[in-house]
Amino acid sequence: MIDWLANGLLPFLVVLTIVVFVHELGHYWVARRCGVHVETFSIGFGPEIFGWHDKNGTRWRVAWIPLGGYVKFFGDADAASAPDADRVAGMSAEEQAKSYHYKSPLQRMAIAVAGPVANFIFAVMVFWGLMVSYGEVQRAATVGSVSDGSAAQEAGLVIGDTVVAIDGDDIDTFADLHQYISLSGGQTMMFTIDRNGALRDLQVTPKRVMREDPFGNEMEGWLVGITSSSDYTVKRFGPIEGVGAASERVGGIITGTLKFVWQLVAGRESADQLGGPIRIATMSADVAQLGIASLVSFIALISVSIGLINLFPIPMLDGGHILLYTIELVRGKPLSDRALEMAYRVGFAMVGGLMIFATFNDLVYLKLFG
Predict the structure, then answer these.
(1) Catalytic residue among 24, 136, 154, 341
(2) Are 228 and 142 spatial neighbours (Cβ–Cβ below 8 Å)?
(3) Which end of the chain is less congested by CB atoms within 10 angstroms, N or C?
(4) Hey, what CATH topology would domain 136-235 get?
């Protein structure tokens, strides 16, 4: 814990501040385009460290608890954009024109989705910059070693085999192969391999294995027991080509995350893999040791993750707001104040419970319980 506080806090603050700022800026920008007055733009929660008012009357602030942020619109009761019923009901026509809660459901949906979209766009821009500036290291999906007693050895994989497809999906790089295996949920897969120019199919069933990551942290995951060959290339991207490649990278992260969530629900993944702020801080410190490019790439990865999580249909999250506004569109009228209050309470309980569970996992991950 002391090492984390000493070495992980600064990278963690950098990562989370950038990602939260981008997310809230998405909400802010679209809200302003829709004529909504933004009362507060906050990075962090709790007491204010410092802040200022802009010419539009918005209070820009940085707070002491750096675990997120929010924009508070005119008519909001709290940071979750729950309406202040008495204040909203007593608004004049002029006040209604700049209140979030008097905008159409479609406008409110646009404001809600803008935060996650901003995270995705930001990630594409970051990956694009890295791909154009540094290129991308790529290793062929060629087997460099096979561990004794591993799933790969049992299936008949040998050094020099190149995996060209899994379950009919093309595999271009060893990174693609690794992601496919790690998200397999332990299900048997059909590997199509190229062995000395001849194609053959092998059934491979990953095993759940405890291993160390490059930073010495113990991790459990699905593995088949192979490493890549030492050969690699650095692929350079032009400005136009880089946009497509960066977008594909973000799409792959989204797809992989959703697949993991599905495996979790189906019971094929362990819930102890869910991490919270402490895990992000630890990973931030580890990645920062690899250099600025790695840290920037990690920021983009977290940006995609935060954007996607916020789209889950849980009240208090952006996806929950979108769900409520969709119900309003279908009904032709807003939900009652009582129904909204209950929805926000349920959402608060779900988000709070998830945070507690993730933090407990983090403490176990750091071996604070032996």
Answers:
(1) 24
(2) yes
(3) C
(4) Pdz3 Domain (2.30.42)
